């Protein structure tokens, strides 16, 4: 663990990303304490500019809601959607990729054709169709994002398993009498974990962007405040009250940037050999 942290700290961008993400997580956790009132509640006259009033640092939106409260509560929604949808996507993609890579042959062909079917459809378009078909609630948003996010996981895990299944320690495990499930879970997947972790960090960022885009189009949960909804609600007044779109946009930018920087740091820390070769 010490060696991992030393390698991670060598990447200054990764440290910056970790600090930004920690700040976003703290804001999301403390949002109910900092802003106990509902972010939907009208607190002042509409279009109050930033710093015009002491207790409303970022002003108010088109209906007089506190922009700062919306950003804080929106941080929780974005992180929740990104994390849970990524976990669900991993739960779908890892077993499919591991089965395809380990058993190969007809099993590999069938599972990869199934995966390619989802990859032929643009992910954003598929998410729109799914949410337009079902009720646009937070649960369905998470499910839709997970459905369009698992194919890259399956292909990555398949490639890792294909390279590991012929190793000597796997042959030794087979000769010792372990079942296929035990070999996959105890020997193959732990060795394929580093690239999966790196991909997962990037998938969280992608899920946040996708949720924001869906909320911008009005396909998010109408009962939950999110950054994408705030941008969409302010698009009609973007010239006059630019800060209403700028603030949530910067929140999305910084969070996604932080996750990408963390992903690069994890890649350097978990794959030191690749880092040395690149140097």
Automatic annotation (TrEMBL):
It holds the Pfam family OppC_N. It comes from Paracoccus saliphilus. PANTHER family: D,D-DIPEPTIDE TRANSPORT SYSTEM PERMEASE PROTEIN DDPC-RELATED, OLIGOPEPTIDE TRANSPORT SYSTEM PERMEASE PROTEIN APPC. The lineage of its organism: Bacteria, Pseudomonadati, Pseudomonadota, Alphaproteobacteria, Rhodobacterales. It is found in: Cell membrane. GO terms for biological process: peptide transport; protein transport; transmembrane transport. InterPro entries: BP-dependent_transpt_permease, MetI-like, MetI-like_sf, OppC_N. Residues 75-263 form the ABC transmembrane type-1 domain. Belongs to the binding-protein-dependent transport system permease family. Keywords: Cell membrane, Membrane, Peptide transport, Protein transport, Transmembrane, Transmembrane helix, Transport. Its main location: membrane. GO terms for cellular component: plasma membrane. It comes from the Bacteria. It is a multi-pass membrane protein. This is ABC transporter permease. The chain crosses the membrane at residues 12-35, 75-103, 124-150, 196-220, 241-262. The keyword Transferase does not apply.
